[in-house]
Design brief:
binds phosphoenolpyruvate; alpha/beta; binds manganese (II) ion; 325 residues; four-stranded antiparallel sheet; nine-stranded parallel sheet; 10 helices
Amino acid sequence: MLVVMQHGASADEVQRVVDTIEELGYEARPMPGKQRTAVGLVGNDGRVDASRLAALPGVKEIIHVTQPYKQVSREWKEEPTVVELPGGLRIGGDDVVVMAGPCSVESEEQILEAARAVRASGAAMLRGGAFKPEETGLLVVTEAIDPEGVDLVAQYADVIQIGARNMQNFSLLKRAGRAGKPVLLKRGIAATINELLLSAEYLLAEGNHDVILCERGIRGFDNSTRNVFDLAAIPVVHGLSHLPIIADPSHATGRRDKVIPMARAAVAAGADGVIVEVHPQPDRALSDGAQSLYPEQFAELMREIRVITDAIGRSVAEPLPAVSA
Ligand code: PEP
Ligand code: MN
């Protein structure tokens, strides 16, 4: 439930709402906004009797959140969430962020070669990186596969990835929600959009609001592609939630020649970023070689993405400057 304050409500009036929510036995989350302050009420299982709150001075209206997820919903927060990364890189704003790199880190040489190649084409983030490639100025997104691994990943990576198979691993979600780093949450292979948003709610409920969702294809009955890329999930999620959503056309299709058209489609559909597998030698990759782009293909994809972002009034996020040569 949301208690929306009148424009110009005083700090005392907001505090009184907070105190009343706590007296009722719930938790209060004040959210100052551009237009008005709202105070969220969490910790309730069912509908809350709002009569005491509605009568308090400075209260404009009470909104009962109708979705099963709360803090993730647009009803809770209307403005889009922009996840701020080190160096000023932003996910969920005007710029489309491209993350690229191999499926797995195979050797120092391989990850650095991949990092240099994707940086040269204009990617802003490296996927798969298990340690900071400062030489290239790329930020790093790496998967944490169990709760015990979260802190280690948080120590070295800029974004903690939660894989599709772990989308409903609630102990992992809770741990990641307390890790103090942004989280990239991938949609489970058989998860509905509703379930994806419910999983994201665990992260926000633990206090982590820097959550990026990822559509990476779901299981279907047709095995022409590895998964069925649910392109419509992008505008659907944007309608239901304020969180940014990116697309993973590599795992969605499983086939190198299908990655580029689906990446283009994702950007055209409004994705806030794409995460793409690129390998210096895909035929030698230890995992997911068949869906990994050659560096030249990735360079071409970047050129095409720029044309699309121009057409829809967005731009591609520029990589940060390298720290050392
Ligand atoms: C990955 O990104 O390398 C990965 C394993 O993806 P997913 O969890 O979507 O299968
Ligand atoms: Mn992979």
